[in-house]
Amino acid sequence: MIKLLRWWSLVMVVGLAACVTINIYFPAAAAEKAADRIIEDVWEQDATTPAAPPPPAEQESAAPPPPSAWSRLLDFLLTPAAAAEPNLDISSPAIERLTASMERRHHQLRPYFQSGAIGLTHDGLVAIREAQGIPLKDRTRVNQLIAAENNDRNALYREIARANGHPEWEAQLRGTFARRWIQKAPPGWWYQNAQGQWVQKR
């Protein structure tokens, strides 16, 4: 009976390690760094750097309890998985070409971001928020710019996933970029929240 319990305990620990490995397989931190680099290149002076979170309050200098045998075993099993988290390659010619195209276009889109006529969507794209804010004579051109921008953004998310050998990461990369576009947008720009409602950034 004791041997059976030990065997089931080992199975549970290995299963937990496998679950954690799956959860960290997509390199979320590396994806945020890659997104920030590309956004800063595309937006240049428009990209803002969010303020660093305040340092955690100092804890009382009580000695931590010694790790249990289970925690030492979990550390042994999970550390290699965490250490294996890859970096993202964003240096392929296709990615550089898409980034350069978006950077050139941004100079034409910037006035409409600033006026609130267009904004950032919750799925990492750009959309018209208030058509009345665009002069009638310019609407066709702005629609063409937005279509080209969204084509490049869709291709960028797909290409980063492909260039890193994981096309299944495309949706996660899109979500990461969607958050970072909004977080790095200047105050006054408009974006969609998770419910699709337009909100002005403060």
Overview of the structural elements:
The protein contains 6 helices and 4 strands, in the order ααααββααββ. It is mainly alpha-helical. It has a domain at about 30-45 and about 90-200. The strands form 2 sheets. The protein has a two-stranded antiparallel sheet with strand order 1-2. Strands 3-4 form a two-stranded antiparallel sheet. A hairpin with a 5-residue loop joins strand 3 and strand 4. The longest helix is centred in the last third of the chain and has 25 residues, at about 140-165.
- Note poorly predicted spans: 16-24, 57-64, 76-83
Overall residue-averaged pLDDT value: 83
N→C terminal distance: 62 Å
Sheet with most strands: strand arrangement: 1-2
Per DSSP E runs of 2 or more residues, the count of β-strands stands at 4
Class inferred from helices and paired strands? mainly alpha
In percent, how much strand structure appears in the residues? 5-15%
User: What letter string, H or E per element, gives the SSE order?
Assistant: HHHHEEHHEE
Largest sheet: 2 strands, antiparallel
Provide keyphrases for this structure.
57% helix; membrane; 6% strand; 202 residues; two-stranded antiparallel ribbon; mainly alpha
